[in-house]
TrEMBL record:
Organism of derivation: Callorhinchus milii
Lineage: Eukaryota, Metazoa, Chordata, Craniata, Vertebrata
InterPro entries: AB_hydrolase_fold, NDRG
Protein name: Protein NDRG2
Role this protein plays: Contributes to the regulation of the Wnt signaling pathway. Down-regulates CTNNB1-mediated transcriptional activation of target genes. May be involved in neuron differentiation.
Pfam families assigned to the protein according to its UniProt record, in alphabetical order: Ndr (PF03096)
Length: 371
């Protein structure tokens, strides 16, 4: 392990430390923000292909209201191998880890820092890695926020289209077509222009190509509800799916992705937040809405957050506090709002950006919906 540096953030209160951690499948670059808070889980992030934790999550985690939440949790940003800024280029013949191996690298991170468990936030390829991680190591994951996940592998037509795109477009543009919708690319907004430049300038292109190739060769998540097939695997923690209504992942994540993930999420539940006025980068273009949804998600899990609302006058809201309630993973029809009660499972869709609270409000209701 190498401790690369220590930095002081806003108001001198946020400490950021970089680490290189050796795992069974290679080195991982990890950035720790803050310090562990008792027995609370760490918030662990995993970025999309073409990005790293800075490009993918800085806007979201630097958002003022989000910092009211992260005061109560340690944040662990994981960069996929060789994707961090100023990463050394992999040598010729380097075998990039498979998606399963990327997921299998994460227990080394959790063990190294002594985390009991994590709440994962993933985007795109990072969502797939975290979902796979939750399938393989369910006891280490308390909850997942999966943004723009595609739970299915590519078919031959999609694979051929990707190969053709790689022959006719630069790598940054090819990756951008995965991250952004055609409408976003045609509008060529300042965000898209900046991202195109940063993908080319801040991510090693050889390393990126290896990650891109491996992501495009992924398989289906292979989830089944227990009792339907022998040795079925399922995600047993609360899941919130997030997709922009103008995202290239909207078709796959929408009700299709909800059915794949929610109908095979056995114990707890799966909520779908379809974010209006948002494309492939909701964590960058709509950090306020995503922060509000994440706050409700944590509350639905049993972490009661009483957070300062900066839209109100100073002094009208007490200081932020957060406490942990007892919880159980046993399936039951008892309301999840009970202190000692287990959680139901639910599949719910929210189309309005003004209704982000409904995601976890519905999880707390006594109900079970099949997709």
């Amino acid at each position: 392990m190498r401790e690369a540096g220590r930095y002081t953030g806003l108001n001198g209160a946020i400490h950021i430390i970089e680490h290189d951690i050796d795992t069974p499948y290679g080195m991982l670059h990890v950035v720790i923000r803050g310090a562990p808070k008792g027995n609370r889980p760490a918030i662990l992030t995993y970025h999309d292909v073409g990005m790293n934790h800075k490009l993918c999550f800085n806007t979201f985690f630097n958002f003022e209201d989000m910092q009211e939440i992260t005061k109560h949790f340690v944040v662990c940003h994981v960069d996929a191998p060789g994707q961090q800024s100023n990463a050394s280029q992999f040598p010729a013949g380097y075998q990039f880890p498979t998606m399963d191996q990327l997921a299998a690298m994460l227990p080394s991170v959790i063990q190294h820092f002594g985390f009991k468990s994590v709440v994962g936030i993933g985007v795109g390829a990072g969502s797939y890695v975290l979902a796979k991680f939750a399938l393989i190591f369910p006891d280490l994951v308390e909850g997942l926020v999966l943004i723009n996940i595609d739970p299915c592998g590519k078919g031959w037509i999609d694979w051929a289209a990707t190969k053709l795109s790689g022959l006719t477009s630069s790598l940054p543009d090819t990756v951008l077509s995965h991250i952004c919708s055609q409408e976003e690319l045609m509008n060529n907004s300042e965000v898209v222009q900046s991202l195109r430049h940063q993908i080319g300038a801040n991510v090693n292109q050889t390393n990126l190509q290896l990650f891109w190739n491996m992501y495009n060769s992924r398989r289906d998540l292979e989830m089944n509800r227990p009792g339907t097939v022998a040795n079925a695997k399922t995600i047993v923690c609360p899941v919130m799916l997030v997709v922009g209504d103008n995202s290239p992942a909207e078709e796959g994540v929408g009700w299709g992705g909800c059915c794949v993930l929610s109908c095979n999420t056995f114990v707890t539940g799966c909520g779908l937040l379809q974010m209006a006025d948002s494309g492939g980068l909701p964590q960058i273009t709509q950090p306020g809405k995503l922060t509000e949804a994440f706050k409700y998600f944590l509350q639905g899990m049993g972490y009661i957050a009483y957070l300062v609302d900066r839209r109100l006058s100073a002094g009208t809201v007490p200081s932020a506090s957060m406490t942990r309630l007892a919880r159980s993973r046993t399936a039951s029809m008892t309301s999840a709002s009970s202190v000692d009660g287990p959680r139901p499972r639910v599949c719910t869709q929210t189309n309005s950006s003004d209704s982000v609270g409904q995601v976890t409000q519905n999880i707390s209701q006594t109900m079970e919906v099949s997709c």
